[in-house]
Amino acid sequence: MSYSVGQVASFAGVTVRTLHHYDRAGLLSPSGRSGAGYRLYDDGDLARLQQILFYRELGFSLDEIAEILKDPQANALEYLRSRLGRLSAEIDRLKRLTEVAEQAIEVQQTGVSLTPEERFEAFGEISFDLSYATEAQIKWQDSEGQRESMARAAAHSKEDWKQLMGEAAAWRGELLAAFDEGEPADSERTTDLAEEHRLHIARWFTHCPPDMHCRIADDFAADPRAFALVVPPSQQRPGLAAYLCKAVHTNAARRTVTE
């Protein structure tokens, strides 16, 4: 039995234009033509179309599908195994993003709502990069400290944010002064500033042992988006992130020795 292009499009849930494209690409050429030259598809063509649509649903490109259909017995298993691995990884990634989105919604629902004026008053030039926040949440999703930090941040009042950001600004001024005056990163003055930063995190967000503080400082040195959370770009100096990172590690080593 033969079917017109319109009938096949209706059966398969695709457009006539898609079928024409498959024909031009040599992926699915109809087995016959009507007396007027119109495309006619038989049952074998429909079976091939079903295969094409199956592989398209799995995300294969038309070139990959054409390669598979050259010899399904030889090619399909290898391609399917590869696709399964990628699909599994994508499923895991989407699950993590779903968890991040759910937590972000929870924070938005329970957190403090600030007008643009209030936000500037509290945070000044400090900005929060959404892409970094999402990556950090995925990276630290199994951390009890991360969960505690998000919960406490959501519970802070407007006055809390003003106070903690005021403390952060004062600390930042001292850090910049030490750096600009050439104070060594491993000096007592600078490592005291590192300890002050660690205690600030513990006071406002989560318990922050020295090893955890070192991981945070490593992020500052490696990712400008992370460092912008403590020093806005307009106040940064070349080498400042690495300077702070060294001070934090020196402080952690010093505390390990003394404790």
UniProtKB/TrEMBL annotation:
Domain of life: Bacteria
Residue ranges of every copy of the HTH merR-type domain listed in the record: 1-71
Keyword field: Activator, Coiled coil, DNA-binding, Transcription, Transcription regulation
Molecular function via GO: DNA binding; DNA-binding transcription factor activity
Residues in coiled coil: 77-104
One Pfam family from the record: TipAS
Gene3D superfamilies membership: 1.10.1660.10, Antibiotic binding domain of TipA-like multidrug resistance regulators
SUPFAM superfamilies: Antibiotic binding domain of TipA-like multidrug resistance regulators (SSF89082), Putative DNA-binding domain (SSF46955)
DNA-binding keyword on record: yes
Protein name: HTH-type transcriptional activator tipA
Lineage: Bacteria, Bacillati, Actinomycetota, Actinomycetes, Kitasatosporales
The gene coding this protein: tipA1
